[in-house]
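A common beginner's mistake is to predict each chain separately and then try to dock the pieces by hand. The better habit, illustrated here, is to supply every component at once so that their relative placement is modeled jointly.
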Amino acid sequence: MHGLANPARFLRIARWLTPLLLVSGIVVAGGALGWGLFVVPPERLQGDTVRIIFLHVPAAWLGMAGWMGIAASSFAELVWRHPLAGIAARGCAVPGAVFTAICLVTGSLWGRPAWGVWWVWDGRLTSMLVLLLLYCAWIALADAARRAGHGDRRGGAPAIFGLVGAINLPIIHYSVLWWNSQHQPPSITMGGSAIAGVFLVPLLASTVGFSLIFGGVVLARMRAILAGIQAEARLRRRAMAESPA
Amino acid sequence: MRETLDAWQFVAAAYAVGVGGTAMLIGWSWIAMRRAERRRERVRGR
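With all components supplied together, the output reads:
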């Protein structure tokens, strides 16, 4: 990880890794979604609505993984002062927020036929909504810090917020165990899976595919942010060199 | 009274949101990356 903190080395790897992750992710996720839509049989109790699982679960995982990325990058930024850590956190924020929003919308579309309601204020749904609000607040804070000219300063409010916000992740995970919930308890644990193999295999394939897409999108956003910083730095240096002493 | 819902309408809506949202995220990120890297090259070349 320390080796990747060098922007030049990062760019050398990201140039070929970004399209590779995106293309392989689109192929794997597309195949898994097609499998889930057209091959998997309807579930005994839920019927065809179970097919939403192939989108909802990967989106939930990536919504949480995005904040894990922000928290890990914030830690690296505060402790080791990695030059790319703040950029990695900014790269994770928007994809994490998008997948959290997809999780909430697909969950609502699943809840209506399964539970009879679009939304309930229970622990799991509310903590996921809090995660989306945290993402929005983090993006606004990081943007404000950048506009205020603190973009190059290591550490700072976004990194601290990124670490503090990670408290919400175990709350999301354990919410269905701590409180009475409309949402089902975890179906996949370290001990095994309560999901039948016919659903589990395309679900894992879909999760892998969307994770590859997420990685490719984060790399693309990091490359965009890095290119912007490098162009600004060059323009600033040139302006200083050309200005009269 | 028992409500009858067409499950496929909810499945189709969920797939439209999920696939559409992911496609827009990929397209937006890719275009933003290409635009930023082209700008950096232009600044370098000046």
